[in-house]
């Protein structure tokens, strides 16, 4: 039995349906699907759970990470850690599979080999259409450099502590795990004998990224940081990662505890933000820290603006986007293994950060 893992958050339901329908049409029903919802909004999660429940080969799991940055590695590791020996394929709700796909997966199953597959990309217009696999025109195909969509021997994934959970948002985790599998003695093969999956179009993370504060959690420069981490692991010959543990997610009780905990108001003044990040946060133990950061209205007052223009000493402030990036960099680097919640308010006028230390 091969397990297909679907990490997911807040994607449109029709996209999931196309992917699941293509699996329902497989000639070899030799698989099961584990659908891991990494903290979708409540209404979307309910729709996704209902849809996935219609397929007898699929199970749905909700993880309480709604107010955290997207982390595909954590979602996958949660499921991988629970798997018995055998094989798993890292799928994606964007994928539409050829009817012979799972037959080929079975043929490629090898205890000492991971196999990744060529993908055909659809255009935006063609993605909106429904039809048999062969009816879709291919916009372009991937080559060996696109390292996602991989069939793994589960034993090797467990040997290297799964995916590297440092990687947040988007980029580099697939190439990294291929490199570390090779370091562990696992072969990695590329399959392009026949096109077996199609990728439904969507804007990528870089296209959605904004220079101002956004309700969708974003961190400026994270793609470059991820790439540097990939290079570090590669140059250092790293095999095992996640020294503080892997596959562990905040549970419902911890999530509810954080949501109920009151936040203290914190101004965006530079000295206060710096003190919070560099003294309070690293030195707090056995407690919950919770702050709501808002802009100090004094910085827009005429008196303040005049004094600043005249070069007089006035308080210095960070804008909320700068604070957002500072806090998220600290979370990614030092605190992502802790139970935490991070939100940008709907009106984009405050940031609420809570963490259990």
TrEMBL record:
Residue ranges constituting the Galactosyltransferase C-terminal domain according to the UniProt record: 136-194
UniProtKB keywords: Transferase
Gene Ontology molecular-function annotations: transferase activity
CDD domains per the UniProt record, alphabetical: Glyco_tranf_GTA_type
Domain Glycosyltransferase 2-like as annotated: residue spans: 7-125
Name of this protein: Glycosyltransferase
InterPro entries hit by this protein: Galactosyl_T_C, Glyco_trans_2-like, Nucleotide-diphossugar_trans
Pfam families named among the record's database cross-references: Glyco_transf_7C, Glycos_transf_2
